[in-house]
Amino acid sequence: GSSGSEDEAGPSTAAAAAAAQKREERLRKFRELHMKRNEARKLNHQEVVEEDKRLKLPANWEAKKARLEWELKVEEKKKECAARGEDYERVKLLEISAEDAERWERKKKRKNPDLGFSDYAAAQLRQYQRLTRQIKPDLEQYEKLKAQYGEALYPTSDSLLHGSHVPSKEGVDRMVADLEKQIEKREKYSRRRPYNDDADIDYINERNAKFNKKAERFYGKYTAEIKQNLERGTAV
Prior knowledge:
It is a single chain. The chain has about 240 residues and is an all-alpha fold. The chain has helices at about 1-55, 60-85, 90-95, 100-110, 120-135, 140-150, 170-185, 205-230. It has a domain at about 20-55. It is built from eight helices and no strands. The relative contact order is 0.02. The mean pLDDT is about 80.
């Protein structure tokens, strides 16, 4: 009887141990899933906070940040060169490749491109900017005038300016040279050809007219006979 009870207890104990092991495995997986869920929730919250910060920043924040980082690097490089007793501009030029230098030169030329005539205000502004870039202040002459006229050099609303200023010969020569350059440049402009009412109309719009003129210039001598035959009605 005792051996029978021991045999019955053996399988039940093994089943209970197996059940306990499965329960422990499930609890472990549950704890892992719970930790992963908390971690994902935390990461999502951080991402939402970061996105909210990015949305509140100015539109050009990234460009400003890159600019500030570049300026900090330049300052550090200048300090390093000063500590070694080297010229920063010379070191910077030595580090620039030929391709970068060529690209910067092209970019510099495109910095103020001539976009043609848009309106008279824009043309006047470009003319003013061109003239002011050519002006090189004479500091020595300025100091002489300042010593000569004192406070009268800076006019106010009560100052009488008419007849009080005589331009220098160099200034007059510079103005004359600039006017002569403007006249020479203006003479190079091609004027718009006047419209000829008697000319044959072989176009449907102005763009088509330009295309026909270009085609006539290149292929007119080859198609002249065909065109004459078509006009006479004798074309084959």
